[in-house]
Structure formats: structure tokens, C-alpha cells
Amino acid sequence: MRKTVLALRPSITGLVLVAAGYAGHVHAEGWRISADAQVRVIQSDNINFSPTAPSSDTLTEVTPTVSIRRNSPRLKLKANYSPRLLYYADDTFDSRMANNLSADGTLEVVDDLFFLNGRASITERARSAFNAEPNLANNTVGQTTQSRVFALSPSMRGTVRLGDVATWTSNYTIARSDSSTRDDALTTRTLTATLKGAPAKLGWKADYSSRTADSSTSNNSERDSVVGSLIYRPDVELELTGRYGYEKTTLSRRRDGATYGLGVVWTPTPRTSVTFDRDERPYGSTAKFNLSHRLPRTAFTAGYSRSIVSSIDTQLENNFQDLYDQIALTEPYASIADPVDRQLAIEADARAGRIPGVGALGTDVLTDSEFLRTRWQLSAVHNGARNTLSLTMYRSTNDSGTGSGGTLTGDFLLSPVIVQKGWTVGLSHRLGSISSLNFSLSSYDTSGGRVTSQQTTRNIFNATYSTALGTRTSGSIGLRMMRGTVTAGDVDENALIATVNTRFN
């Protein structure tokens, strides 16, 4: 296997050098290519995170990242590719390569009429939500899987004349998700169409939606709905919506009936926004709530959602804005002058699991069927003169019973209801213009609710010193301490982590 690893290194180096060498030429044509590389060395006393037979080892990770951006009238593209090479000095596991890809692009094929959007996500993630691991990119081969999602969406947009001008949009999306360690796969097909009246104090909208989910384990489902809405805007700060329609579904069993709901969008100031939606459906209620408030140095967000989701939705919906607010002023990101480049670097590292102690809270449930997810999350960030303090809390209840029914798959085999909760506290202290000390304490708990004793807990402490080593290079050295509890017992790990990051353009 070592020969394979050595053979891969020239290919990775070549990829980065080509991207760096041609960056200037690409800039001139409206494209923007950036390249960077990270080398991380982890000395761990329990590299396999085992409660019974811990193994110490030194893991070296080499991760080049190529980012491609295009923002033109016809094409908008944002893509990051990060192949991660893992080399174990004492052969605790075979050395290997893990691929991480995120891409989102929209092409305007026909002016103001036909658009084509494509999305892709490939990431290394935990094989189960019940794993005891320090982050989503667990280094143990036996506990990880490569999760892949691909989606293609052609859409039509235009205007029609119905006494007054109205706008219409239609969108068809086909998406597929699968996993490298399982034969299960999920394919969804979603058709939406909207006809909306021109902006007015009292407006209207009509929506049609059809979604089918085809699972390799026969947990198939269908949802079709027609909904009409009245929209009232008394002023620029407030929008009220009332909805009524008809929906038929095959979630769990055939359920047809009326659907109705209301929505509120309130923006009292440029710093404060509130959105609220609630709908009663044949299979139960769904809701969404978001509150955002920003002060000169403090930002606060709160969110709640209750909806039918799938592995496709959870992998493509990642929003790293809260994470950006937490660590944008810490190295290696603070020294990136361009705020867009800085955010892309944070997103790429978060997807690849290279940010210790922060990132996506918890591990997505792995299943090939749709399920009901109820989730709330609170985040607060305070940026002082030299200190950044952040707090994030969440709780997610994942219920397979309201989903497509049939055979339980993936994590739901261990429990039909999975409850995940946790919190992260982070503190960054700037020592100077180029250095900082970063601390984080995280706690995660995944349990089977009241119907099973299945439970996993993880408590992780990180302390890291980061500094800029040059104009385009930064480095860090840190300590990670973890205590986890799984069915087989307690998992303890202590690790020293040294990292060097280099940007080529």
C-alpha cells in the first residue's frame, strides 16, 4: 500500500502546481482558480478510538485543495476539490486517499428563460451517528464511509400576462445519494412550479409540487400538493402569508387531505430579521423559524425546523455562516485578505473535517429513506478587541416512523428514533497581528430516545496555537483530548496535532 501512496504524491503535487501556475491566465478570462495545501501530523495514543485495544500511531495527512470560481452573467460556479492522503507510520491502518468535493454551478442556457443547475458533494463521514469520533472525518478506516450526492436541476423562468404581470418558475431536480460501504442508495425526483402575482400590498401565489423518493430497499414514497397563497405586505418591514391547498402522500401509508398554514417575515431593522412558517399536513405538522440579530460586536441566531428530509437534503443544505462568524478572525483564515476567499477556505476545511472542535455539530443520520427531523439550534458570537467567544447549542430528533415506512435501514436499524444533542464553546485570543490561541470544548450525545438503550457520548477539548509563517503560509500546534462512551466502554484519546497551510495564489 505504501507504494500506492508514493505513486499518488506526484499526482497530487502536479494538480496543485498546475492550478497555481495557470491562476493568472485564468483570472484574465474571468475565472478564478486558487490552490492551497495542508500538511497535518497527528501523534495519538488511541488512533483507532477503541475502548478495549487502543493503538498509538503517527498519522500524516497531506491535503491539497483546488478552488474554482466563476461569477459572470451566464455562469455562476463555486467548486472545491480536496483529495486527502492519509499515511500511518506504524501501519495501524492501511494508508489511503479520501476524496472531498463540493460543487454548485448555475448556467443560463437561454436568456431569462432556461437555466441548468448542478450540485455535487463527496465527503468522508462517520459510518454511523453512534460512532465515538473526534470529528466528522474520523481517521479510522472501519468507522468511516464515503458519502456521495449528485443533483441536476433544469429550470424555466419567465413572465405571463394575466391582466397584470405575473412571474412563473418551474424546476425539476433529480438527485442521487449513496455510500461506499453500503449497497443502499436513494434517488429523488422533484418537480415544482410557481405562478406569482406582481409585488403589491395584497399579492397571490400558486404552487405545485411533486416529489418521489426511490430507495434500493423499497422504502419508496410520493408527495404531491397544490397550494394557493395570499400575501399581505402592510409595509416594507412585514410580510404575512396564508396558505391553503390539497396534498396526497404515501408517507408510512396513504394519507390525502387538506394542507394549510401561515408565514411571517419581519425585518424591523437591517440588523434584525425574523421568519416563521407553520403548515398542517395530512401526515402531521411542519414548521420553520429563524431569528437573527446583530450588534456591532455580537451576533445571535436561533433556528427551529420540523420537516421531512433525506440524506440528500442533509448533505446539500450545509450552511457554514455560523462557523464563519466563529473562526474568521483566527489563523489560518485571518491572514486571508479577500473575505470571499476566506469563507471558501473555511467551507472547504469544514467539509473535509479539518477544523478541530468546530464545524457541523453532530453526525448526520445514515439511511436511504426519508424521515421526519425536528431540530433547533442556537448560536452566539462576540468579537472583542482581542477575543472572540462563541457558543453553539443544538438538539435534533430524527423519527423514521413518519417517513416512508417499510424496512428500517442504516442507523434506524439500531433505533427507530435517534436523538442528537450537543454544544460547543470556543474562545480565540489574538496574541498579535499574526498569532492567536484557540480553545474549544464540545460535548455530543446520540441516543435512541426512549425506545432503546443505544447511546454514544463524546466530550472533546482542543487547545491550539496558530500563527502566520509568511505571506501565504500559516502553522499551528495543538492538543486534543477526547473522552467518549460507547456500548463497549469508554474511549479516551490524547493527541498532539501540528499543521502547516500554504496558499499558492
Radius of gyration: 24 Å
What is the percentage of strand-forming residues?
A: over 45%
What is the makeup of the main sheet?
A: 22 strands, antiparallel, barrel
- Structural class of the helices, strands and pairings? mainly beta
Text of the CATH class? Mainly Beta
Through-space gap between termini: 33 Å
- Spans with pLDDT under 50 lasting ≥5 residues? 1-26, 133-141, 356-361
In the CATH hierarchy, the architecture is Beta Barrel
The tally of structural domains comes to: 1
Shape annotation: globular
Task: Walk me through the structure.
The chain has 505 residues and is mainly β. The protein has one domain: Beta Barrel (Maltoporin, Chain A). It contains five helices and 22 strands. It has helices at 2-21, 23-28, 311-316, 321-327, 339-351, and strands spanning 31-44, 57-71, 75-88, 96-110, 114-126, 144-162, 164-179, 185-197, 202-215, 221-235, 238-249, 255-269, 272-281, 284-294, 298-309, 371-383, 387-399, 417-430, 435-447, 455-468, 473-486, 489-503. It has a 22-stranded antiparallel barrel. The radius of gyration is 24 Å and the shape is globular.
